[in-house]
Amino acid sequence: MERVLKNLHLYPDGNAFYLKRKLAETLYLDPANLILGNGSNEIIEMVGHAFLNPDAEVVVSEYCFAVYPIVTALFGAKLVTVPARRFGADVAGLIRAITPRTKVLFLANPNNPTGTLASHGEITQLLAEVPPHVLIVMDEAYVEFLEDPADCLALVRLEAQPNLLLMRTFSKIFGLAGLRLGYGVAVPSLIAALEKIRQPFNINAIAQAGALGALEDAEHIARTRSNNRQGLEYLHTALSQMGLEHVPSYANFVLVRVGDGVRVFADLQRLGVITRPMASYGLPEWLRISVGKPAENHRCLVSLRQVLGK
């Protein structure tokens, strides 16, 4: 990233040729299976441009990622929200909610902000039973943290699921959230449709260089996965000892019930600990706590005990 700074007077590679090629090699795909976005949020907006209008319906789970409803509203489509089951997606309920007007179904797996995970069987059911007129957007932002993820990439390689779009990101396990770089994976015909909507030069030169470096750094990925696994175990155990209800997580954060979420968030922030209040997700009594380094996790829990009087 530092090496490209001296050339920032030049436009970036508008097609991110080298990054796409490296990413395709890493995932055993063809570059034609990939589209890059200014974060996964831009990929979601591309879906809106390509598929949504005021006559369309979008199916999501309760407690879904906030950008799905925002983009649905942006294009005037109708949002159909299926009640969650134990804070996770009711996959059978999502399938039942589909109508002839449904154009898109969004599912994050693991889910943000609850950290829940749909099983392999549920994913298989979803892919088999969702009709072909519905685009399945499987948001896999946290998939690299899983020990045994469902292999949806194989369906793309075989072109066996033309209505499937996978979304991934460099923000989570790669630790490059500030660069804003996400990507979509799908059959070439779907990618070509999204490319017609993509803004030119949407991925800047620094982001492309950083992502190329990140793809070479297998040690960082392994270290981050290990740190996250240990951090989740530490947080789950400590929160249980404190008597705080929380949702077992498969991502890199834990959803925990603290009472007045906004107040506890503010009190923790005054102690220098930043969490995420969940009132905007319909969970006013909950906070989302991200896994950090061991010292950061310890400091967070010490501060939480102080704020809650535990």
Order of helices and strands: HEHEHEHEHEHEEHHHEEHEEH
Give the beta-strand count.
11
Class of secondary structure makeup: alpha/beta
* CATH structural architecture of the largest domain: 3-Layer(aba) Sandwich
And the CATH topology of the largest domain?
Aspartate Aminotransferase, domain 2
Compute the CA-based radius of gyration: 20 Å
Give me the CATH superfamily of the largest domain.
Answer: Type I PLP-dependent aspartate aminotransferase-like (Major domain)
Roughly how many Å apart are the termini? 45 Å
Provide an overview of this structure.
The protein is 39% helix and 16% strand. It has helices spanning 17-27, 40-51, 67-74, 91-96, 120-129, 153-157, 188-195, 205-216, 218-241, 261-270, 294-308, and strands spanning 34-37, 57-61, 78-82, 102-108, 135-139, 164-169, 182-185, 246-247, 253-257, 276-277, 286-290. The chain starts with 16 loop residues before the first helix and ends with a helix.
Write the layout of secondary structure elements.
Blueprint: H1 17-27, E1 34-37, H2 40-51, E2 57-61, H3 67-74, E3 78-82, H4 91-96, E4 102-108, H5 120-129, E5 135-139, H6 153-157, E6 164-169, E7 182-185, H7 188-195, H8 205-216, H9 218-241, E8 246-247, E9 253-257, H10 261-270, E10 276-277, E11 286-290, H11 294-308
Parallel strand pairs: 2-3, 2-4, 4-5, 5-6
Antiparallel strand pairs: 1-7, 6-7, 8-9, 9-11, 10-11
Helix pairs in contact: 1-8, 2-3
Question: What can be said about this structure in brief?
Answer:
By secondary structure, the protein is α/β, with parallel strands linked by helices.
